[in-house]
Specification:
60% helix, elongated, mainly alpha, 5 helices
Amino acid sequence: QLAVQRGTERSGSSVPSVLNRINTKDVPPTFFRTNKFTQGFQNIVEAYGVADYQEANPALFTIITFPFLFAIMFGDFGHGLIMALCALLMIIMEKKLSK
């Protein structure tokens, strides 16, 4: 409140600023910035639950571990090649598919 009071004095305002601290048990919302690449992994993480306020974003760890675990689960090389080609085709045709 001292900083607000000093700011009011320095600005030459005739109306004093009001700052009240409100004690609450509500938890602030969680927001994670994402881009086109990280959005898919963030969706996987949020399917299991959203991290609380000031917790580390588990999607960062998912970006590293999920492809590895997915590769173990679908270890067949032929199946992996087909999946990679389908993914590449979807990336190439992204704008046409989004319409």
